[in-house]
Amino acid sequence: MRSAPSSSSDGYDLALKVLLAALAVGLPAGSIAWLSSNIAAWAAGTGPWVPYRPGDALLRPEQLWPAAGETSLLLTTRVIPVLLTLLLAVAAGLLWMRYKNRAGGSRKKTVAGMATARDIQPLLAKAVEAKARSLRPSLKNAKHIAPRDAGILVGNLAGTRHEVRMGFEDVAVAIMAPRSGKTTSLAIPSILAAPGPVLLTSNKAAGDAYTACFDARCQVGRVWSMDPQQIAHAERTMWWNPLADAKTLDGAGRLAGHFLAASVDASQQGDFWSKAGSNILAQLFLAAALDERPITDVMGWLAFPADRTPLDILRDHKFTAVASQLKGTVEGPPETRDGIYETARQYAAALLNQDIAAWVTPQSSVAEFRPADFVTSTDSLFLLSKDGGGGASALIAACADSVMRAATAQAERAGGRLDPPMLAILDEAANVCKISDLPDLYSHLGSRGIIPITILQSYRQGQKVWGDAGMDAMWSAATVKIIGSGIDDPDFADKLSRMVGDHDVETTSTSTSESGKSTSVSMRQERILPADAIRALHKGSALCLATGMRVAMLALRPWYAEPGSDELAAASARASKAITARAIAKQQPSQSDFDQAA
Question: Can you tell me the distance from the alpha carbon of 199 to that of 597, in angstroms, rounded to the nearest whole number?
C-alpha cells in the first residue's frame, strides 16, 4: 500500500504538465523563430549571426535583431514559427495515429501472457533449419536450406514476422471448424511446399486443396487421383490392389478393420455381430489375396456361404486354423451364420458398385498404383470420398494406411527416416479416413520421416471415431496441436483455457478520505485466455500448442495472400471448371441413349 501525502500533489502534477506542454510548444516555435530571423538578417545584411537563444527570439526579438524591420520580425518570429509549429504538430499527430493503429492491430492479435519468440525458439527458422540438417542427410552439407526443406509453415507468431514451422519429426492434430482456414491456411500451403511425396484425403474437390494443388504438384511429380465416388469426376487412370498387403492374417485383419470402422462408430465395434462380420471379411480377404484374386470375388463368397473355394485356398496355403474357423462359422447355426454374413455383406456393400470396384480391381488399360514406389518419389496421391461413404471411404482409409505402412518400411530400409519426408494431410479424417489405430501410429510416424497432419472439425468428432481413449492418445502423442476459430464445445474450450494457463494482473484501487487520497496496487491471477475468448478467436488466428513450450497465438497465412497466388488461383479456377465440364458431360445423354429410345 502506498499513499499520496495530500491533495496538493494534484496541483504539482498540473503545474508539471503545463510546464511540459509549454516546452513542447515553445521550444520548437522559439527555435524556428531564431533560425528564420538569423537567415533573414543574414540575407538582408542587417546584423551578425545571433547565438542560439530560442526564448529571447520568441519573446524579445527586437533586442537580438535591432536593425531588422518590424514587418521582417513579425514574419520571422510570429507567422513562420506558428505555421511551421502547426505543421509539425499535424505531422506528429498523423505519425502517432498510424503507430497507434498498427500497434492496436498487433494487440488485437496478441494476448498478454502468451508465448513470445523466445518461448517457442525451437519452432522458429534458425532452430528448425539446424534440426533439418540433422534429420535429413541430404541437407547436411548444404550451404543454404530453402524454408520448404526445413519444415512446414504453420503461421506467424501473432504481431511479429517470426515464421512458426513444424519440423520434419513433428506430428500434428488440427482442430478447426469449417471455413476457419484449415484448408486455405494449413492444408494447401503445406502441400505446395512439401519437398517429398504428398498424401491428401478429402471429401471435396472444386475450390479445395485438390484443385488448388493439382497443377503445382504435377510440376514436381505424378499426381495419382483415386476418386471412386466421382467427387472430382476424375478419369480413372490408376487402380490399386487392396489385397496386396492382405497375404498375412494381420494384413487381412487390418483391411477388414477399415471396412468395419467405415461402417460403425468406435462404441459399436466391440459387439458380437461387428466382430464376427469383421472376422469373416478378414478370412475371405486372406483367401482372395493368397490366390491372387480380385477383391470383388469376396462378394461372391459372401453371397454363397456354402462355397468351399475359400476353405480350399486357405488349406492349400497352410492356413488350416483359419480354414477351421471359417468352416465353423459356415456350418454353425443357420440364423447365426446368416446374421454374420449379412453383417459382412453390409460392410463391403460398396464393392457391388462396379464404378467403385473398378478402382481396386486389376486392369491392363491403366497404371497400377504401388505404395512402395510412391514413397520414394515426389508424387502426390489425392484420395477423395464422400462423407458417410461406407465401403468407399473404407477403401480410401485402406489406401492411406497402406501408403503410410509402406513409408514406414522404406524408412527402416533407409536407416530409420525418409529423406525427403512424406507429408500426409488427413483432411476430414473423421469422415473419410477412419484408420482405427491412427492414434497408435502417431507415436512413431514422426521418427520415420512421415509427417501426418490430421484435421478435425471438433474434438468430439475424433472421440466418435476413435473413442475417448483413442482421441486422448492421439492428442497426447501429437507434438504440435493447432486450434483454430469456431470452438463451440464448452468443455474443450475450458480445457484449452487451462492449458494456456494463468498470468499475474496488476490491479490498482484508489480511495479518498479526509486525510487525502490513497492508492493501492495488488496482484491477482487470471486466465490468459478464458473459454469465451477461445470460442471468439477470430478467423485467421490460431493457437499453437507444441510439446514443452508455452501456448502461442498465431496469425495464419492463407495461400491466396502469398506471392504467386494469382497464378495459383488461375490454375485452381481452370481445374474447377474442368470438374464442372466433366460433370455436365456425364449428365448429357449419349448417342446410344437416343438410339435405344428410338
Answer: 45
